[in-house]
Amino acid sequence: MEGTGTGTGTGTGLVTGTADITRRLDDVGYLVDEGTASALFLALTLGRPLLLEGEPGVGKTTAAKALARALSTPLIRLQCYEGLTAGEALYEWNHQRQLLAIRLAESRHDRLRDADLFTEEFLQERPILRAIRHEGPLPPVLLIDEIDRADDEFEALLFEFLGEAAITIPELGTFAARRPPVVVLTSNRSRDLHDALRRRCLYHWIDFPSPARAAEILRRSVPAAAEPLIRSATDFVGRVRGLDLDKAPGMAETIDWVSALSALGATGLVRQDVVRTLSALAKTPDDRRTIGDALDGLVGTGP
Amino acid sequence: MISASPSREPAAFLPGVDRAALAVAFADRLRRRGMPVGLTAVQDVVRALEADPPTSLSRLYWAARIGFVRRHAEIEIFDEVFAAVFRGVAVAADPNARRRPGGGGGAPSPTGPRLPAPSREDRGALPWATLPQVVAGAADSAASPAVPERLPGDVSGLADVPFEHLDGRSMELLGEWLRAAVAAWPVRRGRRFAVGPRGRRPALRATLARSRRTGWEPFHLMRERPLDRPRRTVMLCDVSQSMQAEATAYLHMMRALALVAGAEVFAFATSLTRLTPALTHRSAADAVDHATAKVADRFGGTRIAANVHTLLASHHGGTLRGAIVIIGSDGWDSDPPDALAAAMARLRRRANRVIWMNPRASAPGFEPSAGGMAAALPYCDELLPADTFASLRRVIDAIARTRSSSTG
């Protein structure tokens, strides 16, 4: 067996090696190459967050989802956007209930102290705190999706969590995870991430899959599609990606397109079908025209 | 904490190798090639080798790459160093080292990768940023020694001199002067909120915190308002043959924008080069030197349309959304005009404002008739002359004026 060593220090013992994680992801229908498998395995074993980058549609988010399924552990997702604050990502006090509690105490002529208002009863968990306080046999997978869409102030908010798997709430104290969650961050590189964030994470760049692997993925995700269709479609997409396009089709678009073709009952690539389903592949009018113009060279001789 | 002794597994790819020494030596080679490798990364690699002793070269490759590399641009350097170090071992086993053009044939000598152009080269001159120079510059034109405010007067006098008549030092001085001008930059409404008396949205958290002073009775309703953020800025500068005289001055302007307004800046002639990291260097002279060294194709032909298209398609294309886009070029384009029109139309749809700076526009009787210029004009908000530092400053002022009028 390859890679028998289990982690010595912070290792979670979730998986035994690269081959193991490849097989388990395979079981839940997600095919990985050696690089991605190594990255996921090392992130699990070293207990470090993993930063995934790659072109849109190569399956960064899917990798995290599949990892959660493969480990049969819950996936906690935090979608990033500009203006994301601690109130939406870490925790928030339930102010409405606090106000009610104040009224209630007043009507009963109770004495109210600070500590009465800032207890766990009034604490609202947001994704990161939920991941830290998760009770279960296995740590959850926390997906921090499209971190580049959040502003750089938010990155700074993550440092304590990424470094120590802990959150400090001033009124209550520091919460440290009993089992540090498996953290996966994804980024589309629309903004340069800070070096401090990169330093805290392992890094992996996901490449677009090779034609052979793309065909294998399509066989899994579109079981209804005929074998010749899949082979000619991956070939077609590979050549389309070589064209000068505004938005080159990713794996997600390819899956959509083959599903569309297969729903139309196509068993091979025919010009008419390609034209009818092109909107699944080309996402701007310019791209539609570029692919349309190049269609004669791409489809070949037809039926 | 980490045992450096060889692992017991017989299947290990590198038996008897001191992992710590291997990782440190490798990190050292990467650093010499200009790739920042921190101690955390070295530790990661050692632990990775410990956790999963590599059974093949490609295993070793992935473990080292995931540990060492922190950004996409570093992958190429890493591949080269990896290929140089392990070339004799079993390169044929590794598809990833072979895939990249830099990895195999053109690899550096086995004694160690060749160093890139050193950044700390000794120019043999005095450090430029010293007080005597400024004093000397002022003393040169000492007409009235009684005037205490010498520097601004000098600068504004120089500002109207065309670029080709300025020496390097005056350029630097004017570059700093430009930097001071980029103070009031247009803003957009951000998605973050701050508590303030002018706000309209009730701020529950602040209200409750305030009520603590009044026996938990919420007397004062606190409000919050959205914060303004500086509008994103992208500047593209033409460094082709026809723009040779303006190139350095434009680099100074780009540096001012990058430092003060956080702009993304690019230079282009036949291909696009991102200059933001190079130009944000602390010293103006070093920054301009770095930037000049980085642009490989300067003073060649111009392909404006192709470069705008490349920018739109790259992962920096997102920064164009809602941004102020400044293009500095004379509009002589070797791409067909309709290609530029198509690229500019896409750019216009993403940007908030498009401003074209043309060094020829101040000449009497100027008409935007150059093929590219005529095609691009319908998509520009403004066409401004930019042949002296004073006119560059007027460009900045023109952008700053829109501060209040367009916040949408």
Strand content of chain A: 5-15%
Our count of domains of chain B comes out at 3
Oligomer: heterodimer
Query: Which second-level CATH architecture of the largest domain in chain B applies?
Result: 3-Layer(aba) Sandwich
Helix fraction of chain B by DSSP (H/I, runs of at least 4): 40-55%
Distance between the termini of chain A: 47 Å
Gyration radius from CA atoms of chain A, angstroms: 24 Å
Return the average pLDDT of chain B rounded to an integer.
76
Helical/strand content category of chain A: alpha/beta
User: Widest sheet of chain B: strand order?
Assistant: 6-5-4-7-8-9
- How many β-strand runs of chain A? 9
Number of strands of chain B: 9
Biggest sheet statistics of chain B: 6 strands, mixed
Q: Number of helical segments of chain A?
A: 14
Which outline of chain B best applies?
Answer: globular
Domain AAA+ ATPase (chain A): 46-212
GO molecular function (chain A): ATP binding; ATP hydrolysis activity
InterPro entries (chain A): AAA+_ATPase, ATPase_AAA_core, CbbQ/NirQ/NorQ/GpvN, P-loop_NTPase
Protein name (chain A): Oxidoreductase
